Amino acid sequence: MRKRRQRARAVLAVVTAAVLGAAGCDAVGGDEPGPSGSAARRATPTGPVWDPSPASLAAVGDSITRAFDACSVLQDCPEASWATGSSTEVDSLAVRLLGRAKAATSSWNYAVSGARMADLAGQMAQAAAKRPGLVTVMAGANDACRDSTAAMTSVADFRTQFEDALRTLRKAAPKAQVYVASVPDLKRLWSEGRANPMGKQVWKLGICPSMLGDADALDAAATQRRATVQQRVEAYNEVLEEVCARDERCRFDGGAVYEFRFGTDQLSHWDWFHPSVNGQARLAEIAYREVTAAGGVT
Asked: For residue 50, what are the CA distances in angstroms to 8, 245, 291?
């Protein structure tokens, strides 16, 4: 027991030394029922037939797609990325679609830990230069994970930024298909991680304060704060669906990532916030199922 306590203190000390530089990174979760209304429907491309076997893949987004904290504390682990990773434990979307050998030469990861929707256009420009057959998008958690609910990206700005990102892609790669993953349910993370004393200590260092701050508080103000973040995430997902639906080569996951019930096995045991290797594998499964679904996502 003493050794376990000493190990926990050591890990926390390492995290304390560097976590403030990564505290704004994204989150994963899914506590409440999936979004209702338009956010619950699957967007199906209305133009050309969707190709479930693209010849190449580029990924854009934030630290989830960089597999931050999946392998070691406070570090990206792109080999474990759900989108483009080479890990046999994950079997990324690229590996599933292209095969392991081709994925090594025909998939690219332009995601950046800490990125928000405002950063997506720049990543799309990099991706478009490769003329990929498919671009994966997972972004938006950082727009909700701010110091306060007042600092969250507005829904209107989020929409404009996503539209700008798609336009940037279309200018250079008009025929690239786009798979858009929904923003994960941040409240699920709070629900799962708050039972872990170590996790709550890490959260106090500044990780996603809008949702995870004062993790044990259940008063009216804390409850309202979490509900506000949850509502913003659902609004972001509606935007992703609506904007994607207007692009004939775009496919939204219909809330599949949002609805997935991430548990402690799927969360990094370094920060109880980002996906673990197991969580990355689950994201890869979801993406493959949605990308290869006939006639629209399932």
From this structure: 49, 13, 9
Percentage of residues of the chain with pLDDT beyond 70: 83
User: For residues 139 and 62, what is the distance between their CA atoms, to the nearest angstrom?
Assistant: 6
The C-alpha atoms of residue 284 and residue 59 are separated, in whole angstroms, by: 12
Q: Rounded to whole angstroms, what are the CA distances from 287 to 99, 115, 190, 292?
A: 15, 20, 24, 8
pLDDT digits (tens, 9 = 90+) for 55-75: 999 999 999 999 998 998 889
For Cα atoms 256, 66, 178, give the angle at the middle one, nearest 5 degrees: 50
Type of residue found at 177: Q
Tens digit of each residue's pLDDT (9 = 90 or more) over 240-254: 999 999 999 999 999
Cα separations in angstroms, 209 against 10, 146, 153, 190, 272: 23, 6, 14, 11, 14
Is the pLDDT score of 150 beyond 50?
Answer: yes
Question: What is the Cα–Cα distance from 197 to 126, expressed in whole angstroms?
Answer: 41
Could you tell me the CA-to-CA distances from 153 to 52, 141, 145, 159 in Å, in that order?
Answer: 33, 10, 9, 10
Task: Report residue 156 as tokens.
Answer: 């209107």
- Return d(Cα 163, Cα 37) in angstroms, integer: 22
Burial of 277 per CB tally in 10 Å (0-12, 13-18, 19+): buried
Instruction: State the residue for tokens 């994607």.
Output: 244
